[in-house]
Amino acid sequence: MHIRLARYIDADDIIKFINDNWKENHILARNRKLFLYEFRNGDALNFAIAKNNGYIIGVFGFLKYSNDIKPDIAGSIWTVLKSANIPMLGLRIREFAINNTPHRMFVSPGAGVRTQSIYELLRMNWHKMNHFFILNKNISNYKICRVANKSHKENILVYNRADDLFESNIVIKSIKDSNKVLNYNFNKNKKFYPFKDREYFIKRFIDYPFFSYDIYGAYLKDKVVGLCVCRSVEALGRKAYRIVDFYGDENLLIHFSKYLRNFIIENIYEYLDFVCYGFNDKNLLNSGFNRLKMDESDVVIPSHFSPFQRENVQIYAVSDKANNLRVRICKADGDQDRPNL
Description:
The two termini are about 35 Å apart. The chain has ten helices and 20 strands. Helices cover about 25% and strands about 30% of the residues.
């Protein structure tokens, strides 16, 4: 058996292995363009592969958050050939990828529950991501989300803290000119991990060929001091609006939330939501968000839209332990906001 980092010429073999051993007709097995967009790095692929007798018996894919010499990285497809019967094969492939890919921190949203024991064995952090939402108060009957009774809806809507927004010089604008994004100082976020640079942002949201993202900027005297990325999703003839990434000081959330709350009302979205981890709950609650309670069924804010599932879904994340950095994870940081169909 031999483990090595993958090359571009391995792409078709990896795609076939994913289809045969991860999930038949998985989007990364059916859409070569998406696979290469996510993982190609020049003549290399961001994968470690194990081969035996010339055939792949295991893979570990990863994503890079920046072009730094030591970028933060995330895990992605991770599977082995069960019939290989090699102890700890999956862990050995992962460790090879980690040890042979210079990086600062590892962080991965969307970690499968079955990997929890492995990550705990590696003494890494295991996180339950939070799900916050703001309902459109002007909709009387929801179809995408579910609010069990009228009194509960009134309780959720009884007081939106964002109404008390103090006067400030911060102005929220929709950014249509991508050059405006280039004016934002991404390096201010290096105290957080994953740190995502300008090149990552352009590839992930501006040039992304599979989804259309809306970008909003927080302006202070014509200078962009924060960014919020959103995407519209549809199901059952209705729409919901999702914050999928955020850059800047958390105190800007109250400004973004007020702007976006008016946006969902004007454009008849059922709700605005934000799946995240590492943000101060107080900032989100003071911005008018409600926290979704996963162990209750009277309020349902779906996470999965392709295919659509009208149920609450707990999303997990994993990260390296760090004393001098703060983990801050958003939904789009891994593979939780990519095409599935």
